[in-house]
Amino acid sequence: MKSDIFLADTTVWVHYLRGDDPAVRDRIVPLIMADRVMTADIIIMEILRGARSEKSYETLHNDFAALPRLEMDAKVWERAWKTGYSLRQKGINVPLADTLIAAIALEHSCVLLHNDRHFNMMAKATGLKEEALPVRLHRPGKS
Q1: Beta strands, E only, the chain
Q2: Residues 48, 128, 70, 85: is their CA dihedral positive or negative?
Q3: What is the pLDDT of residues 4-19, one digit of tens each?
Q4: What is the DSSP secondary structure assignment for residue 50, as one 8-state letter?
Q5: What span, in angstroms and rounded, lies between the C-alpha atoms of 119 and 57?
Q6: CA-CA distance, 143 to 138, in Å (whole number)?
């Protein structure tokens, strides 16, 4: 739907920040400009822990602080606990951070924008609305 709100996963931000795929930029920039991209504290933490310098950390911190954030309140935690349990019962084992991010998107009725097979698996089992971005890495000098 045209007015959907998107939660952009760390995988999307990493490719966007690296600039290694114009398709990621072309998808996310219009969403940012239309105020349709949200983030969450856990995503910010994953991004900031990967900063390579103090200057990079400060720049990333300021950039992500400017984005609207979805809260991880008691309802999100409850959803995460139940989702983690339900997935495990179905034989689907995903990282804790991905379970939390999916729970945020589910609880806030967002479309999760990602490039992570775990979210594809979770969508089939939970009804998570997701959009997987096919990342095509551009490597100079390679065809």
Answers
A1: 6-8, 37-40, 69-70, 111-114, 130-132
A2: negative
A3: 999 999 999 999 999 8
A4: T
A5: 27
A6: 9
